[in-house]
């Protein structure tokens, strides 16, 4: 019998492009996913996609099922949402603060979709350049913080969104651009360009420079990612940014990038108050955010969460 999970599996296969990526998105092993698909094909009596095709190619039957999935899954989500609204009320407040200052690319589409679902929820958004947002979260001044630096607190619930790789951005002419990876000592003679936040909230300091006891020769701060890229491209310094934030500039060959050491993979979290983690509109926003991340960002890794 055809089940909802089968439709979600085909969507993951299409959007992921490979069995490996689809398995990651579904939190399955590749073997378990292959077995599920083979079992489904045997029950239906048709093949749904062409094995070992690059790029992955669906059969006519697979395309028919994908079309059905694209129609049914959004309707199912809307029905679930309507029931949640009836059960929990439709109004509320969602004041957000972003510590990850490159997040607007995927967060704004998530907010726009959320407005359609919850038009009576008050939404506000700001960055945390000039204050520590987690104390404000526990006080109730704000409702959600996007952060890669969780601090243990029983009053705060951290929902993992995804893992990303921190990369060092350098100019195309920089000597490091030809290296496989950067060492901490490579940065001792560099100007490090970064956002105007405390060092402990910067991945490159927390996970790379401070453990090695290394200081860059100079620091330069800017609030704009684009300005950071322009400074790097013109040889004014180096910068550490998430792989997905750098990808458009790498594709345009404006800059080069390399891993920090053997690779640093922080996790991005949504922090909310523990007493709000079961609120329907909060849960829906987090679900939309995770979906939007994987629709818009390259190079990120999913994280399994207990439900």
TrEMBL record:
<dbReference type="InterPro" id="IPR036390">
    <property type="entry name" value="WH_DNA-bd_sf"/>
</dbReference>
<keyword id="KW-0805">Transcription regulation</keyword>
<keyword id="KW-0804">Transcription</keyword>
<dbReference type="InterPro" id="IPR036388">
    <property type="entry name" value="WH-like_DNA-bd_sf"/>
</dbReference>
<dbReference type="Pfam" id="PF03466">
    <property type="entry name" value="LysR_substrate"/>
</dbReference>
<keyword id="KW-0010">Activator</keyword>
<feature type="domain" description="HTH lysR-type">
    <location>
        <begin position="2"/>
        <end position="59"/>
    </location>
</feature>
<keyword id="KW-0963">Cytoplasm</keyword>
<keyword id="KW-0028">Amino-acid biosynthesis</keyword>
<keyword id="KW-0678">Repressor</keyword>
<dbReference type="InterPro" id="IPR005119">
    <property type="entry name" value="LysR_subst-bd"/>
</dbReference>
<dbReference type="InterPro" id="IPR037406">
    <property type="entry name" value="MetR_PBP2"/>
</dbReference>
<comment type="similarity">
    <text>Belongs to the LysR transcriptional regulatory family.</text>
</comment>
<dbReference type="InterPro" id="IPR000847">
    <property type="entry name" value="LysR_HTH_N"/>
</dbReference>
<keyword id="KW-0238">DNA-binding</keyword>
<protein>
    <recommendedName>
        <fullName>HTH-type transcriptional regulator MetR</fullName>
    </recommendedName>
</protein>
<keyword id="KW-0486">Methionine biosynthesis</keyword>
<dbReference type="Pfam" id="PF00126">
    <property type="entry name" value="HTH_1"/>
</dbReference>
């Amino acid at each position: 019998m055809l089940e909802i999970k089968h439709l979600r599996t085909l969507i993951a296969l299409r959007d992921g492009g490979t069995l490996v990526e689809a398995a990651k998105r579904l939190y399955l092993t590749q073997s378990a996913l292959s077995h599920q698909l083979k079992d489904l094909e045997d029950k239906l009596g048709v093949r749904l996609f062409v094995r070992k095709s690059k790029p992955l190619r669906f059969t006519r039957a697979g395309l028919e099922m994908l079309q059905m999935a694209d129609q049914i899954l959004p309707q199912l989500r809307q029905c679930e949402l309507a029931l949640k609204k009836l059960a929990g009320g439709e109004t509320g407040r969602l004041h957000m603060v972003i510590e990850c200052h490159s997040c607007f690319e995927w967060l704004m589409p998530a907010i726009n979709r959320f407005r359609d679902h919850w038009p009576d929820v008050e939404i506000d958004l700001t960055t945390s350049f000039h204050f520590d947002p987690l104390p404000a979260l526990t006080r109730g001044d704000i409702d959600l913080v996007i952060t890669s630096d969780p601090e243990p607190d029983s009053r705060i619930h951290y929902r993992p969104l995804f893992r990303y790789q921190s990369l060092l951005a350098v100019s195309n002419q920089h000597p490091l651009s030809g290296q496989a990876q950067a060492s901490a000592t490579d940065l001792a003679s560099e100007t490090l360009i970064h956002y105007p936040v405390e060092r402990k909230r910067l991945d490159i300091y927390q996970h790379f420079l401070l453990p090695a006891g290394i200081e860059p020769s100079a620091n330069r701060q800017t609030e704009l990612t684009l300005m950071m890229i322009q400074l790097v491209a013109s040889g004014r310094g180096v910068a550490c940014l998430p792989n997905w934030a750098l990808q458009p500039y790498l594709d345009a060959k404006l800059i080069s990038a390399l891993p920090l050491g053997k690779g640093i993979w922080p996790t991005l979290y949504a922090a909310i108050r523990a007493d709000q983690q079961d609120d329907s509109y909060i849960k829906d926003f987090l679900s939309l955010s995770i979906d939007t991340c994987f629709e818009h960002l390259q190079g990120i890794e999913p994280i399994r969460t207990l439900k």
